[in-house]
Design a protein that fits this description.
By secondary structure, this protein is of the alpha/beta class. The protein folds into 3 domains: 156 residues, Thiamin diphosphate (ThDP)-binding fold, Pyr/PP domains (Rossmann fold); 150 residues, TPP-binding domain (Rossmann fold, 3-Layer(aba) Sandwich); 191 residues, Rossmann fold (3-Layer(aba) Sandwich), CATH 3.40.50. The chain is 37% helix and 16% strand. It has 21 helices and 18 strands. Helix 1 packs across helix 2. The chain is globular and about 70 Å long. The N and C termini lie far apart (63 Å).
């Protein structure tokens, strides 16, 4: 019998889904797991529902196909919220499939029941209840909606008595192709560009593919035009490229350089990527991207929405042939950002740990980065050459992202090593996923920036003149913990030792954890340099 679960899994396969993640329950999840096994779609057990969602999100960001995660009803749904919020705010196509009470039982029983659709309503683009007659169309619609610009999460609630039923085949239950939007010349009036001598590109997460990044780099090269990239757009313009001017977060570090431009060209920039501070730049902003900017945070003088390669071709026609920027000026800006985070300390300074790790890893490995104070030197100093080579939670900026994301990424291409860069606080949030890593035997090196504290919160307490209560983590013997879960474990207390320890893991196909014992005294000056 071809079941509803079979039909749903095959619609996911048609969309390019490479795996399922999560913590299953005892209802429709079990039928979906059986259908996935029959279809040879791997399922990875995570140790929290949020981690399963983040694993699926990492695969979605890399493949541009939807990620899929599963959860049981009620407690599983509640535990998913953080992962779904990441997908919503970081614009990731995610399909969330949850168990549910039988349809006839809804409104009768209260045990383990709350309204899943209402719970998810602020987070998902759509929530749908699956039934036997329309299951294929619901799954296909979930794919279409998740991928539609801007991408985001969709919820499928599957009652426990539905997934095992015989499915009604429907030849029309295929995802709809995205409508192609043609750029109108009037959307980018030539007058805005005519007097621009110092146009500056700010590239954001909407630049998602290698062809789009190549078009943007070529555009900048032809005009000697600088580009700043958001955290999510690291690699769109490689760190070593002549047009690379550094990172843009809407903070102090890049502000003088942005003010020296006379036109801001926002390419794929989504305001969700920016720090929540008023936009004070007076230059006109021209926005081009696959979805519109509503103008509430970043006011735009003009914008065009559509296929990004087409938009870049239109920009190529509009921008002046020459600009007044010099290569030396652009290089000074990028070098200045790097130098600003090189704050020394008596012990292992965070920036020295980052540079040592980058030397050991090389330029080709995929890296995932967790939220926390260690993030600032990483994002300024870690060299990235391709879109989505570095994965980070930026719109949500959630702790506990790096390790689950690394697991999702590594499962796509097992021979190639992935490096997860995390603080000790962030790793504690998803500690159970070290067991997932050990069980799956994935080629991942986890680098723990260990300072025994929630350093970023401590800095904010100190700035307010408050006591530093509630942020101490205590000593954790990370290498021993890693070994207890089947990982190689090592400790480094200086940059040379850290580089050596990480390099030893890079030729191994085995999972590893390297603790970098960080001197956190450098973080306050680093944060001040970056954010003011």
């Amino acid at each position: 019998m071809y079941t509803v679960a079979d039909l749903i899994v095959h619609r996911f396969l048609d969309a390019g889904v490479r795996g399922l993640f999560g913590m299953p329950g005892g209802g429709s999840n079990l039928d979906l797991l059986e259908a996935a096994a029959e279809a040879k779609v791997p399922f990875v057990l995570s140790h929290t529902e949020t981690a399963g969602a983040l694993m699926a999100c990492a695969q979605a960001e890399i493949t541009r196909a939807p990620g899929v995660c599963l959860a049981t009803l009620a407690p599983g749904v509640a535990s998913l919220a953080n992962g779904v919020a990441h997908a919503r705010l970081d614009r990731v196509p995610l399909i969330v499939v949850t168990d549910g009470l039988p349809v006839a039982a809804r409104g009768t029983y209260e045990h383990q029941y709350f309204d899943h659709a209402a719970f998810f309503s602020p987070l998902v683009k759509r929530s749908m209840l699956v039934d036997a007659r329309g299951a294929g169309r619901a799954a296909a619609e979930a794919v279409t909606v998740a991928l539609a610009a801007p991408p985001g999460p969709v919820h499928l609630d599957c009652p426990s008595d539905i997934a095992s039923r015989e499915a009604e085949r429907d030849p029309g239950d295929r995802p709809a192709a995205a409508a192609r939007i043609t750029v109108a010349d009037a959307d980018l009036p030539a007058a805005l560009f005519a007097r621009a001598r110092r146009p500056l590109v700010i590239a954001g997460l909407g630049v998602a593919t290698a062809p789009e990044a190549a078009r943007l780099r070529a555009l900048c090269e032809r005009r000697g035009m600088p580009a700043l990239v958001t955290y999510k757009a690291k690699g769109v313009v490689p760190d070593g490229h002549s047009s690379f001017a550094g990172v843009f977060t809407h903070a102090a570090l890049e502000e003088p350089f942005v003010r020296s431009a006379d036109l801001i060209v926002a390419v794929g920039l989504d305001p969700v990527e920016l720090l929540p501070r008023p936009w004070t730049y007076l230059q006109p902003v021209v926005a081009c991207g696959p979805w519109p900017n509503d103008g509430r945070h970043v006011p735009v003088a003009a914008q065009a929405v559509g296929d990004l390669c087409d938009l870049l071709a239109t920009l190529d026609e509009r921008l002046p042939a020459d600009t007044a920027w010099s290569a030396a000026e652009i290089r000074r800006q990028a070098d200045g950002q790097r130098q600003a985070v090189r704050v020394d300390a008596a012990g292992l300074a965070p920036y020295r740990a980052v540079e040592a790790a980058a030397r050991a890893v090389g330029h080709d490995a995929r890296v995932t980065v967790d939220a926390g104070a260690h993030m600032f030197p990483i994002m300024a100093l870690w060299p990235v050459s391709e879109p989505r080579q570095l994965l980070i939670s930026n719109g949500l900026s959630t702790m506990g992202f790096a390790l689950p994301a690394a697991i999702g990424a590594a499962l796509l291409d097992r021979p190639h090593r992935v490096v997860a860069l995390t603080g000790d606080g962030g790793l504690l949030v998803c500690l159970g996923e070290l067991a997932t890593l050990g069980r799956e035997r994935l080629p991942i090196t986890v680098v723990v920036f260990s300072d025994r504290s929630l350093s970023l919160i401590r800095i904010k307490q100190e700035r307010r003149g408050h006591r530093t209560d509630g942020v101490a983590l205590g000593r954790i013997e990370w290498p021993g913990l890693a070994r207890s879960l089947g990982l190689h474990g090592a400790l480094a207390t200086d940059a040379a030792e850290l580089e050596r320890r990480i390099a030893e893991t890079m030729t191994s196909g085995e999972p590893a954890l390297v603790e970098a014992a960080i001197d956190a005294s450098a973080y306050p000056a680093t944060l001040k340099a970056v954010r003011g």
